[in-house]
Amino acid sequence: MASHQDFVDYVAEQLREAGTIRSRKMFGEYGLYCDGVFFAVICGDQFFVKVTPAGEEAFPHLPKAPPYEGARDYIWVEDVDDRDTMTALTRLTCLALQAQPKKRRK
Question: In Å, how far from its chain's centre is CA 51?
């Protein structure tokens, strides 16, 4: 099931304190960027954040699941009404992703 734009807009609004949130449509679903860093996807109107050691350590209670068939596990944020958790997880994840060495394209 493809995600709905109103759900994507709601998630972006919930994350407004984490940084500049931008969404990009990808194959009927959406990728999310915070301050230019790709950190999450919305698939089937569900919010999934990339797994980082910092995110796992800070939020061990959040489940992990693949957002689509064949994908790696992401942290699944079921309660998109919990702005504080979403914001904190987004900040931690983006800081960790920014600190990783850049992958070179071949």
Answer: 9
What's the chain's length in residues? 106
For 37, list phi and psi in degrees, rounded to 5. -100, 125
Distance (Å, rounded) from C-alpha 47 to C-alpha 43?
Answer: 7
Tokens linked to 82: 């919990």
Distance CA 78, CA 103 (A): 30
Amino acid at 104: R
What pLDDT, on a 0 to 100 scale, did the predictor assign at position 27? 80
100: exposed, middle or buried (Cβ count in 10 Å: 0-12, 13-18, 19+):
exposed
* Residues ≥6 apart with Cβ < 8 Å to 71: none
Cα 26 versus chain centre, distance: 14
Q: What is the mean pLDDT of residues 61-75?
A: 94
Q: To which H or E segment does residue 54 belong?
A: helix 53-58
